[in-house]
Amino acid sequence: QVQLVESGGGLVQAGGSLRLSCAASGSISGFNYKGWYRLAPGKKREWVANIREGGILNYSNSVKGRFTISADNAKNTIYLQMNSLKPEDTAVYYCNLAVLSGEGTLSDQWGQGTQVTVSS
Question: How far is 6 from 4, CA to CA, in rounded Å?
């Protein structure tokens, strides 16, 4: 069984920075997909960034140039470095991993969510 644990959220002033982490544990052989999403009050879930096969990084237009997604495969952990934060970045952030288990099965896993609040 695979578990994801997120950390790093908090309250920050506009212009500040935060770094989110998402650590996976369990029977893990690799990842087919690594991504971050966010959910703000009254809005639909929004894709933020991902790492596709081949290590290609993708970002939504709303965060491009300010956020950086990365991964440490040895630690089964992905990160989201968020700089120049804006009040509109306030949301619960979720990591999403497509996990290939040691038994060869593929599963879609979500973190528990971490709150990011940016004050103006």
Answer: 7
- Answer yes or no: are the C-beta atoms of 38 and 111 closer than 8 Å: no
Number of helices (H) and strands (E), helices first, in the chain?
Answer: 0, 11
Nearest one of 18, 32, 24 to 95, comparing CA atoms: 24
d(CA 118, CA 81) in angstroms, rounded, equals: 14
Structure tokens belonging to residue 97: 């991993």
pLDDT recorded at residue 53: 82
Q: What mean pLDDT value characterizes the chain?
A: 96
Using an 8 Å Cβ cutoff, are 35 and 50 in contact? yes
Which band of pLDDT confidence, cut at 50, 70 and 90, is reported for residue 43? very high
Q: How many residues make up the chain in this entry? A: 120
Neighbours of 107 (CB within 10 A): 12
DSSP-derived 3-state class of residue 56: strand
- Residue 101 DSSP code: P
